[in-house]
User: Fold these one by one.
Assistant:
Number 1:
Amino acid sequence: MTTESLPTAAEARHLTKVLRHCGLLGPARVGGVTVANAFVKQRSHTRRLRLSYEGDAGNAPEFLILKMGHLDSAGRSAYTNQREVAFYRDIAPSLPVGVVPRCLEVVESTDTTAWHLLLEDLSDSHFFGTEHPLPPSRRQCESIMVAWAKFHAAWWDDPHLGAVVGSWPAADWEQYLHTFVREFAGFNNRYEQVMSPERRALYERLLDQGPRLLTRLHARRNLTLVHGDAHWWNCFLPRDGGGDVRLIDWEGWSINTATTDIVYMMAMLWYPDLRRQLERPLLDLYHATLIAQGVRGYDRQALDDDYRLSVLWLILRPVGQAAFNIPPRVWWPNLERIFLALDDLNCRDLVAGR
């Protein structure tokens, strides 16, 4: 347990108000708040708050999760986390119960206030399946794949996409490709030992063929909301072994093909042995779940086609990670694994127009 001073969002009076507003607390009130533990990342600070009550609190929660930015001396955060704030404000309320943690309060960043998210604590009922970078068990992978399919299906070709929620991805990708040219040049100058002439030529062909490949996104069909950082450790698994998987950390969501998420989980993060063993059956399960959730006009071949195209696009990610100063111990294995998947799935053919 830490003894740090509490931000305003964690004060007892404020939490009492929030819990009453959410119907989780009656006449009792929060009497004390301590930080049970904390998790500090580059741009955010997450605290697990332990609450004590004055009066009969019934089933009011003993713990809550408070996520916010790092505060300066004026009590503001340079990082506004606009994407995740928007997700919990505008998107999460429309999702089926149990897809993401319940958010009790969303406060966006302004000139006078810092952003924060107050979330239900699932630590007692859920856990991360493995220690990074070890893969989950096959049964856990299946549960996670079903959870992603349910989330993707909930927003599949939703009429609000691009109009009320998010922006259409083709224009964003076209803009990023111009930025990537500079990132790639810097990467080649600094890390030429991992970029063979053959690989460099593939990137150049991808940049050349990019406008043609982006016609898939210009069609604005069979698109959905994607997480953007869908690794296995952004999935909270139920301790009882059931299917109540919760998806967390929504700082990078966007509109795209659903395979953007599942390619990242398998093609980029798994070595060939495991990927070759589980990739096909997990894709079969994923597609079957999409259909069971009401997705139509998207057959199994379409999933394979999108998967291969997403693998090809994902070779850009390690270069971007390096440009963002993510250490080589992260981006280099990602680079090698995604190229192994690229060759297994014959994705080079896509830039040759075959």
Number 2:
Amino acid sequence: MVTIYDIAKITGYSAPTVSKALNNQSDIGQKTKDKILQVAKELGYIPNSSAKGLVTKKSWLIGLIYEEDDMGVGIEHPLFASIINAFKQNMEATGYELIFIARNLGGRKMSLLEHCRYRHVDGVLIVNSNADNEEVLEVTKSDVPCISSNIVFPDVSTVTSENIRPAVEAVQYVYSLGHRSIAHIAGPQNNIASAGYERLEGYKAGLVSRNLPINEELIVVSDLWNGQSGYKAMIELWKRKVKPTAIFCASDIMAMGVMNACRDLGLRIPEDISIISFDDNLWASFAHPPLTTFRQDRQAIGKKAAEMMMMLLNGEKVPPRVLVPVTLIERDSCARLPLET
């Protein structure tokens, strides 16, 4: 097995200098670091994680607290899987490994914080957990550095997509197509995700920006972020006296349920009703018709979360919240209303 002493002998640098280069420390020159890393690569050097931990006083482990109940797809979630993967790739590039933090380890029950302590994680990324969960809050209130994606926790830096501005623009977009009766099928109004109430807030602000009344008859709040809830919400909406000509859905998966309900109700999209949504999941472009929606930049969210984690680990100040811009993707689910004669 190749050791740092073998690299030191070939490069002519001391073992401590070689160690600093391999651990990406900043107090040696870049030219020296590059030479040492090149020789290490040529020799096939593989660092010993235990020895690295002793030198740096770090575990080089980042814990992941992830919970997903709405869709029942676990880690295959169309949004969070991509965010977690981007975070993982960016953390691995700096030498860290991502591990799951669970409440059960080898048959032994333990709290999330106990698991963090057991693994000696250097930091934790929290994805899609309930902001009222006592065990998660125990972690956020501890001395373990935490970054959140999607959920806003007290005193925890969070990175999410923009929610309010795109919701405003969704209303303004269908308004520009001649729609004046615009409904919103909203996400759950709870502590699972700020997206639900922020997109509802943006929808209302969009109506105000175009001097349209806020009609509660045109708002249905879904129980969960899934297709079944979207279907149920659309059926409920269509039972009401006031009928919309356009609908802003809080998420693509909910929009899939809404589109299925429209077909069962005999409504054609976009001839009878226009639909605009939020996420741009993989299947949005394959919907019938292809769905107009706002694309969340999953890679940017994961990368920014990793950058904020590194700032925390380096003792730097991080902003309380970072909003990542989204992009409108125009497809075929919205139509211009014919001019009244």
Number 3:
Amino acid sequence: MAQEPLKIFITEDDVIFAKIISHHLSLNPEYEVEIFPDGKSLLKNLYKNPTLISLDYNLPDMTGLEVLKQIREFNPDLPVVIVSGQQDVATAIELLKKGAYDYILKDQDTKERLWNITKNIRENIKLRQKIADLEEEIGRKYENNNLIKGNSPAINKVFMLIEKASRTNITVSIYGETGTGKELVAKSIHHASARSKKPFVAVNVTAIPRELIESEMFGHEKGAFTGANNRRIGRFEEANQGTIFLDEIGDMDLNMQSKLLRVLQEEEVTRVGGSENVKLDVRVIVATHKNLQELVRKGEFREDLYYRLLGLPINLPPLRERGNDIALLARFFVDDFCQKNKMKKLSIT
């Protein structure tokens, strides 16, 4: 998932000081800063769910402690940094006990201290997200026989190719009719590989409007186009050190194919509106229900990209070619339905 911008609220009645802090933090394009002159205006805007609040202790309408209490009632996990001109240790200790994230003095170093605190909070958020993602992955069962059901010769051949693919970083191209389980195969390869603890990012090419696909895949910089209010990383950067799965690659238009080819050749992306080249280490798996060779012959798919993506081809058999797997799958789905609906096991005749 693309990372949301870090939303920072600055509550400060000193207009000049607030603008200095805001400008300094806004140097990071991933930070979105908003200023409030008093406690009441801040509290009215908590529904916007800021990531961090910088709170002046001496406000014209409320004390910092009063505002802090109401923030804690709204969201006890929201980090609040108290900024004060008072070198009062007792006040600082009291505020920290009441749930303030930190207490810093208002002086010429305030903006740097707040920058470092914000950076630490951002890193903690990333770490918590990684832990949550990992816990979610661990909670799933990704062994081949759990993801893909069957024991027919046709599906056993697929299992052998999955095992072969998981031992290397070779590009994999998966071919099969709609509903044959192309994404399940891609997930099986990823979770059996050395990249299993890194991201698996699935992208359905047909689901992304043509005018947005470059930004979605490669990201964009702040101001790159109308509506680009913040920097946004693309799906390739999200998948860095992991696996990106490009489903329905046969439907990608020729212009985007050229840009994808460059990314695969150079192993780097350049965000839309940017000049920085971001190096990548991404395993690529593609899938399609179309005959790419036929598309190449018709001039609808780049030949050089075709050979770049071919890698290890895996052809998925439709269910009609899987023999007794039909009965096995029927049994699995009936048992799964009964378990989810707390019903007695049903028989199949």
Number 4:
Amino acid sequence: MHIIARNALETINEAVVGGNIHDLGVVKIFSRHPQLAQFIPTSSNLAISWVRLECGEVLAVHKHPESSLILICEGSGRTMGDAEQEVVAGDMILVPGDSWHGFEGTQNGFWALSIQFNGKALYEDAEKPNAVFASEVPNRAAVLLADNENYLQQFGTSRLLQLIDDPSFDNPSVRERLLDCQQTWSDVFQDLLHLRVAMTTDAAHKQVALDHLVEELGHNDNLRNQRGSAHAPVTDATFVSTMEWFRHQMLYRSDMVRTLLMHVVLEGSGEIWHREAARAFPAIPHFQEHGDDDGEHVSMGMDLLDRATPAEIRELREALAEGWKMITQLCDRIASIALADTAVPTYSTC
């Protein structure tokens, strides 16, 4: 019998993929130790490595063709990528080939055994590992932008935008009711900005949320002051419940979804609406000023969305569709309220 200490194995700390260096934590490949290489039968096709991540240390999301079995032997961590879950000693993680995954050490970090079944360890050739890191995949948010182009076009035909060119819009009462809705929504939007900052946990997302809040702060009061008339808060049930849907998203959804809804949906629709409203209300500079800002506000969150994992992209596409459905419903209802339409509402398709 012979005992081999773990620290007797050669250590690999990084791998080069696409010309970029990626931190691996600690990787100790059994086959690089002469006695272990001789002891493990080549016919077994087993490739085994010790892996170690300290607390807070991350093995970034990546994928490889080979399936892997990860045995958490000591400590704790969490998985990232297609599945996000806390793991502790004794847990076994099954990683199918070509699935996005990554790990982070928590508390005191963890030691694990990484096992492949094709006879070659994942990072046996650290200069040319058979792995792709998610950060190397360009423009992962492109599918979101493609979806969004369709939603933007559909939003352009919403009832609210059509109302501006309708003869009924010349009626002062219609215009005032529309502005009352705009003021109510503008006040709620300020709440959404503060909620997003309060609920966001990721540092990068929080910084963007804070920057956005600073730029938007007080815009509702600007509109109120520029109107020069008393604001009658709108309490229509459909209108209020639709605004509350967005409040719920800021409270309970992920940082990625909050960023998507705030910058792509709300600022994206706002850019279109404020551009048209500036034409309809030339005496109120709020709309022109806000429209100029909204284009920049849309782009504020795009770099963050480009970091989304494939699993997050799927969630974001669903949230994008739902978000545009709800903002279109909100705008359609504003048009109905402005026209004093008491019929059962029907909504644009988005």
